[in-house]
Amino acid sequence: MAEFNTKVLIIGSGPAGYTAGIYAARAGLNPVLVAGPQIGGQLTITTDVENFPGFPQPVNGGELMLKMKEQAEKIGVRIVEDTITEIDLSKSPFYCSSENSHVFTGQTIIISTGASARWLGLKNEEKFRGFGVSACATCDGFFYRNRDVAVIGGGNSAVEEALYLTNFANTVTLVHRRDQLRADKTMQERLFNNKKVIVEWDSVVEDIIGSDNPRGVTALKLKNVKTDTMKTINIDGVFIAIGHHPNTDLFKGQLDLDSEGYIITKPDSCQTSVPGIFAAGDVQNAKFRQAVVAAGSGCMAALEAERYLSRL
Ligand code: NDP
Predict the structure, then answer these.
(1) Which residues are 279's β-sheet partners?
(2) pLDDT band at 51 (very low <50, low <70, confident <90, very high)
């Protein structure tokens, strides 16, 4: 068990966390960053990133996060690979303890715990998770070479996952509950121009069907919400891409959260309802959810933490 006492404690290692760390370190605040369960955050499970400035060629999400980590470490951020499990924001210095039984105290905390993939909530979805049900095409797509797969959702994630899967799969069926996609127009064009893609419009998944021996998904039962008709499509894998929820369970009852659980911050600020506690990235921003926005808000949080400390 170790004890870490710091002026700026950063929780989370996505673009917001690393950027906050870089700014806090350059301000001489010797920040400590606790990486959390998914080091590098959501970008580590994405494919090519084409919209992060500075990369004229697409950069792999995992690679981009490794570069951010390397930059943060080089500049003096102390990165601890651990997960905070308990937190007390009632008095300063704020106290946290972790999965590995370490204790962390911070005069300020920057929360950048991000958001996680949402699931449909079907019984068989859980049963077959890792056996044909996935939320990460980059992680699992490789296993579906020449197989038939489905992707659920109509946003950029669903379209990106579907396009990625066409690199391996025989067919990719996109199942969307409406008759229009939410994804960007350019992404939609790429999808519709791909001959491996089939779209099931106005459809929801009623059930995921699978076998126990060998354990695996074999089909999807779909319901057309306009005609109420049922249809079964044979597939070997299904990728759920229906959005995210914020990772804020730890802060319930201690910080003001909105109705969806995102941390509320003051307008044009990363300041939460507790002075000295700042939130940056997807955990306080359900609207944009972009790496570059998260990085920008990480910078804001660090600058605000610095000003808060100098006022103390
Ligand atoms: P979104 O919230 O944008 O889309 C979620 C999709 O899932 C919607 O089409 C929604 O349907 C559908 N959905 C939600 N709940 C259910 C459910 N219970 N059953 C069936 N379908 C459901 O999430 P994304 O993860 O796609 O994207 C999040 C953010 O990240 C967006 O801002 C997006 O632009 C961004 N992003 C950007 C990328 C890029 O630029 N390369 C790549 C990936 C994401 P409906 O449309 O009917 O609401």
Answers:
(1) 111
(2) confident
